[in-house]
């Protein structure tokens, strides 16, 4: 299979790194950056068309473009224009692909990885977009966002089409809908996993955040397959809200009798997971799926949604069962490490109260000595910080608070937010994450579990605009040298 080289120059972009002769540069107003500041650089690199918001044009900008011989285009919404122009420039690649989207607060990455694995094992050619990595068939590319900017997204889809991919499986974030990254892209299938508090820095209310997630339904093709987890207190409202088109093939699952499929879980801790899906019209016969590599009730819900979507797409039961059995989860999700002193280390991406509850309650059953090391990201969701702290103290023997991408926030304030109204004595505070991990190890013994939450597969720290290398995985491996 030929190796793909992603193009270095794009016909339409909002980032000057990809501007070349003849490029259309779209100036986007961000939270910290004003795209208009980069127009001189874009012109110097060869841009021949500049797109800006009609309320953002200045006389200086008009003179600048005229002197460079570049066309100045005014639009109502530059973000929407970036999506439309990028799709046109790359030949509307979304129309060629069967695009499967997963939205929800938790489980998106695991579900997308599972979809890719099962489809690939069944002989399909698949591209993938996640916040961890992007893939075209077996080739991996770096990822920076859960759902990429539309200029990258359209470029990537064009490469997937050229490589012969039939499917694109992707995470669809709420912000991607709100910021027009997915304009003009319609899905052949979708899963709504669950919903809880997150991104309060972007959405002022839970209702606004939920409404943004529900934009998914405006992107479904006629007869698209939609899978809903009705055990989630928010997702179960969706059929009642009548936001799902009557043409959509909507399939529901959960523990309730009203679901199309009843989910029964047999979770054997960290050794195996088995679940059964029983159709409401055939209660005497269930579909059984097993894994020795994926654990936890919450992963049974993730896999149940994936299984039902794959069956709706026409894969055989045998293909789906084999795919589930051989699936090894997504990077940074319950990754296990045997430590030199007989303890176990676990790396997981959990960074919300509910995901803390899921991971820590599972591990709590496996040991009488559970230590958690975590922090909270800066610039995001201060409301969830004390909730995560409360879950941690309720389920763990030792709670160590440390740094996790504080960004521009004061790290000491993040720590105070996590502690909340609890006694400071319930926590150990070590702001250096590497030292916090060493401290957890030094306090552990054979049979103990140390769980590092928040980073998962990410390999960086963001502090006051500076990005440096940091890997929880590498820190656990380094313990062998202590």
What is the count of helical runs? 15
Superfamily (CATH H level) name of the largest domain:
Mur-like, catalytic domain
CATH class assignment of the largest domain: Alpha Beta
Q: According to CATH, what is the topology of the largest domain?
A: UDP-N-acetylmuramoyl-L-alanine:D-glutamate ligase
- General shape: globular
Structural class: alpha/beta
Q: How many domains comprise the coordinates?
A: 3
Mean pLDDT comes to 95
The strand count comes to 23
Note down, in words, how this protein is organized:
The strands form 4 sheets. This protein has an 11-stranded mixed sheet with strand order 8-7-6-9-5-10-11-12-13-14-15, with helices on both faces. The chain folds into 3 domains: 73 residues, MurE/MurF, N-terminal domain (Udp-n-acetylmuramoylalanyl-d-glutamate--2,6- Diaminopimelate Ligase, Chain: A, domain 1); 237 residues, Mur-like, catalytic domain (UDP-N-acetylmuramoyl-L-alanine:D-glutamate ligase, 3-Layer(aba) Sandwich); 147 residues, Mur ligase, C-terminal domain (Protein-Tyrosine Phosphatase, Chain A, Alpha-Beta Complex). With 482 residues, the protein is an alpha/beta fold. The radius of gyration is 24 Å and the shape is globular.
